[in-house]
Amino acid sequence: PKGVINDWRKFKLESEDGDSLSLSKKEILRQMSSPHKSFSKDDKDTRERFCRKMSMQEYELIQDEKEDETCLQKYRKRCMQDMHQRLSFGPKYGYLCELQNGEQFLEAIEKEHKSTTVIVHIYEDGIKGCEALNSSLTCLAAEYSTVKFCKIKASSTGAGDRFSSEVLPTLLVYKGGELLSNFISVSEQFSEEFFAVDVESFLNEYGLLPERELPALENGNMDEQDVE
């Protein structure tokens, strides 16, 4: 808690407008945000007396500042964003990658981070469902940036005879170089007209997508339950 309190004090000091806080109060916040740098180690008595006085001044400072709640909301927002950034690991993508040949296909699977899910759409122009699936995967790639979404034409894989028009569109899902799922003629799982939300629900049924990323926190608008 001491580290959190000092971090909050420092954040408040940095976020204050230059004219909104008196010099004395600014100095109080500065001292409180770096309590171990205020005095030398040899000046123990002075440091202890200053710290006792500081607790009273801190209370008065917090009580006097009406805008403190707004500042606290901004601080919460920053903490949530920092926490989410620390919890998000591994490479990020955010787009549907076009693979040009079989070599790139193998590299996308075998040389990827072991924690990354790789979803490959094998398609051909003019095949029913392929265009709609590419559009859906483009949307999902933006929503799930930790998942690597790829597409490749069957004729470019080097194994076109294995991907005839009867099995397209095909979705292959890999992780750690291992094939997790293989969905042939996957568009048959949807209605004639389908969208990203339908593909998302389908992949979630098989547990192939991670949790959605936290949305950007707007203007610090969140209640106590969100913070918890």
From TrEMBL:
The record places domain Phosducin at: 1-222
Where does the record place it?
Cell projection, Cilium, Photoreceptor outer segment; Cytoplasm, Cytosol; Nucleus; Photoreceptor inner segment
User: What is any one of the record's Gene Ontology cellular component terms?
Assistant: nucleus
What's an example GO BP annotation here?
Answer: visual perception
Does the UniProt entry include the keyword Isomerase? Answer: no
Q: Which gene encodes it?
A: Pdc
The answer to whether the entry has keyword Metal-binding is no
Going by the entry's taxonomy, the superkingdom of the source organism is recorded as Eukaryota
- Please identify the protein, giving its name as recorded: Phosducin
Main location class: other
Q: Which UniProt keywords apply?
A: Cell projection, Cilium, Cytoplasm, Nucleus, Phosphoprotein, Sensory transduction, Vision
